[in-house]
Structures are given as structure tokens and as C-alpha cells.
Amino acid sequence: MKRLISIVILPLALGACAHFGAPPPQPGDSADAVRARLGQPTNVYRSGADTLLEYATGPMGQYTWMARLGPDQRLISYQQVLNGATFATIKPGRDTKDTVLTILGRPTQVTHYASVDGDVWLYRYKEQDVWNSMMSVEFNRQGVVSALVNGPDEERENRRR
Fold first, then answer.
1. Class of the 22-160 domain?
2. Element at 161 (helix H, strand E)
């Protein structure tokens, strides 16, 4: 039985590792090539003439990759978007829920705080690729960003204890 498990499981495990360590898609790759390499996206968004393929890592994940395809369905860029530089591009008073989705992808969680008049979207990330952090994107009732507030990801820190 152990031999059978080794024969069946080992190739599957090695295949998964090989895909994980595979190089990322390259600019110019077709949409089909991107999907073949990365699988089905967690969401698809439109941004002008471009199409964004979101690859989010789930509710406890700290990374979301966005593959930007041009009108010709060729890859323009592929980047991890949950980081300080990308958060800094979001402007209170200008950006909306729709634009935040195209910048950051889906939130980890949607919540409401008594001190905020609208929704709050939470995003887990690694501050400076080190600290377990949570970015709160606060919206007013009209769905416009009113503030961004970051702090420690207490839920993730509590799991480590």
C-alpha cells in the first residue's frame, strides 16, 4: 500500500512544486497562455480597454496578482498588488469601489465600523514583505474612498501564538 501511495502521490506533489516554481507569465504572452500557466482567475475586471485577471490567494492570503491584458488579449503586466506602493495609488475622494477592485482585487473581508459611515474593505498583506498587516479601505455611503488605515493583522498574529 505504501508503494502504491508513493507511485500515485509523489508525481502529483512534484508536479505541483514544479508549477509553483515556474517562471511567471511574460509580457506579450496570450491570454490563453496566461490562463494555462496560472489557471482560472479568481475574478476578471475591465479597466478601460484592458482586461485584468485577478489571482487572489484567499481569505488568509497576503498576496494578489493582477495580470493586465491589452485590447489584443496579450499580457501587458503581471504584478503582486497588495503592497504599500499600490495602496499609495488609491486616492480618497476620487477612487470608488469599482476602481479599488481594479487596483487591488477583491478584499479579504467586507465589514462595517460604527465610526465609518459606509463599508470597510480589509486586505491582508505583508508590510515591507515582513510584517503581517491589514489595510482598511474605508468608503462613504456613495462608495467613494474616504480613508485608508493600516495596522497589524491581529488575527494572523494570534494564530502564531
1. alpha beta
2. none
Q: What is the pLDDT of residue 8?
A: 40
Query: How much is the pTM?
Result: 0.82
Q: 56: closest CA among 89, 80, 27?
A: 80
What does the alpha-carbon distance between residue 42 and residue 100 come to, in Å, rounded to a whole number? Answer: 16
Cell of 6: 508513493
Q: In what order do the strands lie in the sheet with 131-139?
A: 109-111, 120-127, 131-139, 145-152
DSSP 67: E
Q: Break the chain into its structural domains and give their ranges.
A: 22-160
Choice among 66-70, 102-106, 155-159 with the minimum mean pLDDT: 155-159
d(CA 7, CA 144) in angstroms, rounded, equals 55
Q: pLDDT digit string (tens) for 48-75?
A: 999 999 999 988 899 999 999 999 999 9
